[in-house]
Q: What sequence folds into this?
């Protein structure tokens, strides 16, 4: 006879066209277990003569025979009850852990427990995820780009006190990824829309889609294994990781190899040799640590990222003109002490008149890769002070005796600036700019260290002494 199953399994039928154009759906599918989710990809329907024909197919059939056809509902179901909350556990938490809370926390009979909240905050959080995903849909549907331009200043203010869109979430959720993808689509055509929005840029870096990945099972050691055993397990784990990123079915042998089928048994001689080697290494480490000079007070520990990684210099605007098509941008030629002035785009047209820009002395972040901003080749970024909702923006003036090309120094941090490609690759702006601010006098500071030009130079002050402002 037939036996009823309580297993959380689902079948997703999706048009290849829809899947190719939905990176979030791709990521969720790749993170789901193939033992739970069956994906059927279908070619898009052919157009009939006269313009008729069926629409693109997207539907999720649950084990309970319930069928979902709305894209956002499908994504939330895949991260929630459809797959027994597997994607709302660590390390994913794609619903912030809140769907599991509402289910009763056991991942058991979801149909009985779902909808009986154990936490009002979790219910509000899930409603928030749904609302933010609707916002992302609106941004995607608005081909003019007006929706995202209206949204960004408000979003920047909202994120000034939050890491992610939904409060009390350990990681970015579906809402973060969905809105990030929607904004990125518009920003790829008009990168100027993100200029000056430090909180949005930090959030987009922190919510990178790379964090939606398939976890590899960890391998545990007792601490007395010889190095060759650890190396073999590490190689097997790497093989499992590589296989998981390709065909998931091929990952099973590698994963099994990584697990080793149980604890590796060692002889007494092997254990003794390993213990002696560890003791020798620990003695060497202690000796090196004793020889290291003491860290100066106020300086960052060796290897720790600080503001000296950024090459911030004094610049002077030589020429300025309005961008032909971008209504917020000025195009500028700025002397930063190099053989030729740099071309840099700056989104200050809503805040400064053209006549008030020429010959101004400014601060320029120089070690950024050159890029096109709405067709204009821009190499660097002019730093400005702004309030939280970005309704007031002011340039920052270097001291009177500073010359173009003079570099800003902060306290005892005297490291060399990093290479342009490393600044972008390591997301240094996202890590450093949130702590770059003005103090109560409008002076630029980073983590309490005052910015000065040259040894014993003067401070750099935001125009109108704009106090307690973000700098970016």
A:
């Amino acid at each position: 006879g037939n036996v009823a199953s309580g297993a959380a399994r689902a079948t997703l039928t999706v048009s290849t066209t829809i899947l190719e154009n939905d990176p979030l759906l791709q990521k969720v599918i790749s993170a789901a277990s193939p033992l739970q989710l069956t994906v059927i990809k279908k070619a898009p329907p052919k157009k009939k003569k006269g313009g008729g024909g069926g629409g693109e197919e997207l539907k999720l059939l649950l084990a309970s025979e319930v069928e979902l056809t709305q894209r956002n509902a499908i994504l939330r179901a895949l991260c929630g009850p459809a797959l027994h909350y597997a994607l709302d556990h660590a390390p994913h938490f794609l619903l912030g852990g809140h769907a599991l809370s509402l289910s009763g926390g056991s991942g058991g009979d979801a149909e009985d427990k779902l909808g009986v909240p154990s936490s009002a905050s979790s219910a509000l959080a899930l409603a928030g995820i749904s609302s933010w995903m609707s916002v992302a849909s609106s941004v995607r549907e608005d081909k003019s780009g007006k929706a995202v331009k209206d949204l960004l200043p408000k979003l920047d203010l909202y994120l000034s006190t939050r890491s992610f869109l939904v409060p009390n979430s350990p990681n970015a959720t579906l809402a973060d990824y969905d809105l990030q993808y929607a904004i990125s689509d518009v920003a790829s055509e008009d990168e100027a829309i993100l200029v000056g929005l430090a909180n949005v840029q930090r959030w987009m870096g922190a919510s990178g889609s790379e964090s939606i990945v398939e976890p590899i099972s960890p391998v545990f050691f007792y601490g007395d294994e010889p190095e060759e055993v650890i190396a073999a397990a590490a190689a097997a784990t790497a093989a499992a990781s590589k296989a998981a990123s390709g065909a998931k079915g091929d990952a099973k042998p590698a994963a099994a190899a990584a697990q080793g089928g149980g604890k590796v048994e060692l002889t007494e001689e092997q254990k003794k040799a390993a213990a002696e080697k560890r003791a020798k290494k620990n003695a060497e480490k202690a000796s090196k640590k004793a020889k290291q000079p003491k860290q100066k007070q106020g300086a960052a520990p060796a290897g720790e990222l600080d503001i000296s990684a950024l090459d911030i210099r004094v610049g002077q605007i030589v020429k300025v003109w309005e961008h032909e098509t971008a209504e917020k941008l000025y195009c500028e030629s700025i002397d930063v002490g190099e053989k030729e002035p740099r071309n840099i785009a700056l989104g200050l047209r809503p805040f400064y008149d053209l006549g008030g820009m020429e010959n101004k002395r400014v601060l320029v972040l120089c070690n950024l890769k050159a890029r096109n901003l709405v067709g204009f080749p821009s190499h660097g970024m002019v730093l400005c002070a702004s309030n939280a909702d970005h309704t007031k923006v002011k340039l920052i003036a270097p001291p009177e005796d500073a010359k173009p090309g003079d570099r800003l120094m902060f306290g005892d941090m005297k490291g060399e600036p990093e290479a342009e490609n490393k600044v972008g690759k390591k997301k240094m702006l996202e890590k450093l700019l949130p702590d770059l601010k003005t103090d109560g006098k409008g002076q630029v500071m980073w983590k309490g260290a005052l910015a000065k030009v040259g040894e014993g130079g003067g401070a750099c002050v935001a125009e109108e002494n704009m106090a307690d402002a973000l700098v970016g």
Remarks:
- The two ends are 68 Å apart (CA to CA).
